[in-house]
Design goal:
Layout lengths: L6 E7 L11 H12 L3 E7 L12 E4 L4 H24 L3 E5 L1 H5 L3 E4 L2 E4 L6 E18 L12 E15 L6 E5 L9 E2 L1 E3 L2 E4 L5 H4 L1 H12 L12 H17 L5 H8 L4
Helix pairs in contact: 1-5
Bound molecules: glutamine.
């Protein structure tokens, strides 16, 4: 547990390079929800060449990025920050990677003859496919909590746009695709999770469209259960979540295992 006496402390890795598709909105959302609840909030930008403190933060955050920016950050991440990131995860801090950031948490991202190394905190690798996997996406996740309970099945909705296809090794997916492509467009798996090391392809940004998930992160960071967080008026946030789910249902093919069985049986 990473209790921080009422302050959520976030390390924002490579804010200048890993920040596409409004991924900085994830941090703005966390900041607002902490402030509305009179919880403290600290965000520390950690860029190329900077040292990373394994003990100073509750969440280590990596957003998405173009291949070129990823390659730039990957070399630095592996050389300068991998050990601290691993130590932080070991003590129970959250490591959250979105899309390009997610890919860098695995062993490597292979683009033809080029190989972008990852930190290997998640047993997975990514290869460049033909064409991009783009569109609105909805997945179902059930996350364990510190107290031994789980969140129960919940929808995460967002937007994906990636050329990489991620192949999981000995690691669980974050969730199951209901609508959209997910890790590779065919397995029905989306993202990956080992303990509190979480990777997902969901931009959106992710957290404003899924505030239940944001509150799981906040609660863990400040050492309470989500039920103990002061409630907020989430009517707009709930509407954003519902709208993102509707968009996924309207526009993206359904790759859930059930849908694939139905399609095979001619009932798709
Ligand atoms: N460059 C990576 C890919 O295309 C990640 C893109 C992203 O972060 N959206 O697969």
């Amino acid at each position: 547990m990473t209790a921080s006496r009422g302050t959520m402390r976030v390390a924002w890795l490579y804010p200048e390079h890993l920040n596409i598709y409004a991924d900085r909105g994830n941090l703005l959302l966390l900041e607002r929800r902490c402030q509305w609840r009179e919880l403290g909030w600290e965000v520390t930008p950690v860029g190329l060449g900077d040292a990373l403190d394994a003990d100073a933060h509750d969440v280590y955050y990596l957003g998405g990025g173009q291949d070129r920016d990823q390659a730039l950050c990957a070399a630095d991440l592996v050389a300068k920050k991998r050990d601290a990131l691993a130590a932080a995860a070991e003590r129970g801090a959250t490591v959250l990677g979105i899309c390009g950031g997610y890919q860098l948490l695995g062993h490597e991202y292979e683009l033809g003859t080029e190989r972008i190394p990852g930190v290997g905190l998640l047993d997975l690798r990514t290869v460049r496919g033909t064409g991009r996997l783009i569109g609105d996406v909805e997945i179902t996740v059930d996350l364990p909590r510190v107290d031994g309970t789980t969140t129960g099945p919940h929808a995460l909705a967002g937007f994906e746009n990636h050329g990489g296809r991620t192949i999981l090794g000995d690691v669980a997916p974050l969730g199951t695709v209901v609508h959209g492509h997910g890790n590779d467009g065919e397995s029905g798996a989306e993202g990956a999770r080992r303990g509190q090391i979480i990777g997902t392809y969901l931009h959106g940004p992710l957290l404003p469209k899924n505030v239940w998930f944001a509150d799981e992160l906040i609660a863990r960071a400040v050492g309470v259960t989500p039920a103990e967080l002061p409630p907020l008026d989430d009517r707009l946030e709930d509407a954003a979540h519902a709208s993102a789910r509707r968009a996924a249902q309207r526009s993206a093919p359904n790759h859930s295992p059930l849908a694939r069985v139905r399609a095979r049986l001619g009932r798709g």
